[in-house]
Specification:
Blueprint (H helix, E strand, L loop, with lengths): L1 E5 L5 H10 L4 E5 L4 H7 L3 E4 L25 E4 L1 H9 L3 E3 L5 E9 L13 E8 L2 E4 L5 E5 L7 E4 L4 E4 L11 H12 L8 H16 L4 E5 L3 H14 L3 E7 L7 H9 L8 E6 L1 H8 L5 H23 L4 E3 L4 H6 L26 E3 L7 H10 L4 H4 L19 H20 L8 E15 L2 E14 L7 E2 L4 H14 L3 E6 L13
Parallel strand pairs: 1-2, 1-3, 3-4, 4-11, 12-13, 12-15, 13-14, 15-16, 18-20
Antiparallel strand pairs: 5-8, 6-7, 6-9, 9-10, 10-11, 17-18, 18-19
Helix pairs in contact: 5-6, 5-11, 6-11, 8-9, 13-14
The chain binds xanthosine-5'-monophosphate.
Xanthosine-5'-monophosphate binds next to loops.
C-alpha cells in the first residue's frame, strides 16, 4: 500500500493513477488524516501531493514532522516538496518569477534512485509560484532548472524525496519512470496489484459501507452506470435495485441488450426494473422542435419516471451513481476530492428520491480504468467499449420534431453505419460516430419513381477530450458502402451526407 496525502492539488488523482499503473495499490487520504491511522495502515510509501497554498502561511495545510520520522519513504510533489522542506527546517519563499509549463530540468545527483535511468537533461511540467530557496538539513539538491535552484532534493539515507515539478503529468517526459523508481525501487513495492485487486477492495468497501442496506441505481446502459451496477451486484447482490428507463430514444436493440446483460436472464445478481416509457416520451415530445426544450422535456421526464419507480420501491439507504473521476474534475471539485461529494451525474435527481447517502464506487477511476473493471466483472466487450451516448439519446440526433417513425429511421441508419465501421476495423479508432436525421426532405429518384424523402447525416469525430474535435478521415469506399446500404435498406431515406465540420464551430451532436 502507498498512501497519497491530498493537499488539494489539481493533479492528485493523476498521482494515484500513475501509482496504479506501476501495479501498486494506493489510497488517497486528505492531509487531515491522523498520523496514528497512517501508522496503523503501515504503508510502504507516502506521497504528498501539490496544493494551492503557501506552506509558510499560518493556516495552510500542513502535517506533523513525525511523518518524516517513521522510516517510511516519503515523496513530496510541488506543495508536498515545499512542505517537506519547510517542516524539516529548509526555507520556502516567493521568488520574483514563478514557473509554469514545460521546463528543462537538469539532474545534478547522478546516483539518485528516483532519477535512475533518466537523462541528465529532461523536460518536466512546472506549475508553482513559491520555491525552495534552501533545502532542509541532511538534504542534497538533486536537480535544478534555470529559474529554480531546487527542482528536486533528497535525503537518501532517510528515503525522503522532494520534487518541485509534476512527474504525474504526461508533459514530464520521464515522469512515469520517476514515480516507478519511487514506488517500485525506493519503497520496494512488489508490483503485483492489478484491476482485479481494485474489484476485490471495492467489493469489500461497498459491503462495509452498505451493511444490509438497500441501494438504488439508475442504469442507463452506458459504460459507467453498467460497471457500477456490476460492481455493486458483486458486492451486495439483491440489495441492489437497478432502474433502467427505456425512453425510446436509445440506439437500435439497445434496450434489449441492456436487459440481456442485467435482466433476470443475465449474469448479474440484482433486481432489474425496466420501464418502457417510449410512448410517454413520444407524446411529451410531439410538436416540439426547439432543441433546448427537447432536452429539458427528456431530462424532466426521466426524473418523473424514476421518481415513480422509486416511490414503488420505497425508502432506500443509498442512491448509487456511476460518477467517475473526470466528472468530478468537470464539475470543478478536483481539489481534495476525497472529502467532497459531487452530485454531478444526475442533476437534481437526489431531491426526488428518499435515500440517506450517495455511493459512488467508481469516483477515483479514469475511463480506461472503468473499462478494465468492467471486463474484470464479466460485462460484455461491446458494452464496455461503447462510445459515449448522450443522456437525451436520439432526441438530439433528430433535428426538429421527434416521432416514432423518425426514431426508427435513425436507429436503422445508425445500426448500418456502426456495422460497416466495425467491419472496416475503424470502431476503436474513431472516438464517436453516429447517424443523425436531418429535418430536410429532398427529391430523388429510385426505380424510375420520384421520391421525396429524408436526408441522413453521418458524423464521425476524432477527439481526446470531446471539447474540441475533428471530422474523422473515413475511407471513401466505406462511406460509399454505408450510403448505399442506408438508401437501399432504410425506408424513408433518399440522401446521405457526411458531416465534415470540426468542433468548434460545430458541436459533436446536432442539437
Ligand atoms: P457536443 O455535442 O456538446 O458533445 O459537442 C460533446 C460530448 O458530450 C456528449 N453529450 C452529452 N452527454 N448528456 C450527456 O450525457 C447530454 O445532454 C449530452 N450532450 C452531448 C456528446 O455525445 C459528446 O460525446
Amino acid at each position: 500500500l502507498v498512501i497519497v496525502l491530498d493537499f488539494g492539488g489539481q493533479y492528485n488523482q493523476l498521482v494515484a493513477r500513475r501509482v496504479r499503473e506501476c501495479n501498486v495499490y494506493c489510497e488517497i487520504y486528505s492531509y487531515r488524516i491522523d498520523i496514528e491511522k497512517i501508522k496503523a495502515m503501515n504503508p510502504k510509501g507516502i506521497i504528498l501531493t501539490g496544493g494551492p497554498n503557501s506552506c509558510y502561511e499560518a493556516d495552510s495545510p500542513t502535517y506533523t514532522k513525525e511523518l518524516f520520522e517513521l522510516g517510511i519513504p516519503v515523496l513530496g510533489l510541488c506543495y508536498g516538496a515545499q512542505l517537506m522542506m519547510h517542516v524539516l527546517g529548509g526555507k520556502v519563499t516567493k521568488p520574483e518569477v514563478g514557473e509554469y509549463g514545460k521546463t528543462e530540468v537538469l539532474i545534478d545527483k547522478k546516483d539518485s534512485k528516483v532519477f535512475e535511468g533518466v537523462e541528465s537533461s529532461t523536460t518536466c511540467w512546472m506549475s508553482h509560484f513559491d520555491y525552495i530557496e534552501r533545502v532542509a538539513p541532511g538534504f542534497e539538491i538533486a536537480a535544478h532548472t534555470a529559474d529554480c535552484p531546487v527542482a528536486a532534493a533528497e535525503n537518501a539515507e532517510k528515503k525522503l524525496y522532494a520534487i518541485q515539478f509534476h512527474p504525474e503529468v504526461l508533459h514530464t517526459v520521464r515522469g512515469k519512470e520517476m514515480l516507478y523508481n519511487f514506488v517500485r525501487g525506493v519503497c520496494a513495492c512488489s508490483g503485483d496489484w492489478k484491476m482485479d485487486a481494485f474489484v476485490e477492495n471495492a467489493v469489500a468497501d461497498i459491503r462495509e459501507k452498505v451493511g444490509d442496506g438497500k441501494v438504488l441505481l439508475a442504469l442507463s446502459g452506458g459504460v459507467d452506470s453498467s460497471v457500477a451496477a456490476g460492481l455493486l451486484s458483486r458486492a451486495i447482490g439483491k440489495q441492489l435495485t437497478c432502474v433502467f428507463v427505456d425512453h425510446g430514444l436509445l440506439r437500435k436493440n439497445e434496450g434489449d441488450e441492456v436487459e440481456a446483460v442485467f435482466g433476470p436472464k443475465g449474469n448479474f445478481d440484482l433486481n432489474f426494473i425496466r420501464v418502457n416509457a417510449q410512448e410517454r416520451y413520444y407524446s411529451k415530445l410531439a410538436g416540439v422542435t426547439e432543441p433546448e426544450q427537447k432536452r429539458k422535456i427528456i431530462g424532466e421526464e426521466f426524473i418523473r419516471v424514476f421518481e415513480e419507480e422509486a416511490k414503488k420501491i420505497g425508502a432506500v439507504d443509498f442512491l448509487a451513481q456511476g460518477t467517475i473521476y473526470p466528472d468530478i474534475v468537470e464539475s470543478g471539485l478536483g481539489g481534495e476530492s476525497a472529502v467532497i461529494k459531487s452530485h454531478h451525474n444526475v442533476g437534481g435527481l437526489p431531491d426526488y428520491v428518499d435515500f440517506k447517502e450517495i455511493i459512488e464506487p467508481l469516483r477515483d477511476l479514469f475511463k480506461d480504468e472503468v473499462r478494465k473493471v468492467g471486463l474484470e466483472l464479466g460485462i460484455p466487450e461491446d458494452l464496455v467499449f461503447r462510445q459515449p451516448f448522450p443522456g437525451p439519446g436520439l432526441g438530439i440526433r433528430i433535428i426538429g420534431e421527434v416521432t416514432a417513425e423518425k426514431v426508427q429511421i435513425v436507429q436503422d441508419a445508425d445500426a448500418i453505419y456502426r456495422e460497416e465501421i466495425a467491419k472496416a476495423g475503424l470502431d476503436r479508432d474513431i472516438n464517436q460516430y453516429f447517424a443523425a436525421l436531418t429535418n430536410m426532405r429532398s427529391v430523388g429518384v429510385m426505380g424510375d419513381e420520384r421520391t421525396y424523402d429524408y436526408a441522413v447525416a453521418l458524423r464521425a469525430v476524432k477527439t481526446i477530450d470531446f471539447m474540441t474535435a475533428e471530422a474523422a478521415d473515413i475511407p471513401f469506399e466505406v462511406l460509399q458502402k454505408v450510403m448505399s446500404r442506408i438508401i437501399n435498406e432504410v425506408k424513408g431515406v433518399n440522401r446521405v451526407f457526411y458531416d465534415l465540420t470540426s468542433k468548434p464551430p460545430g458541436t459533436i451532436e446536432f442539437e
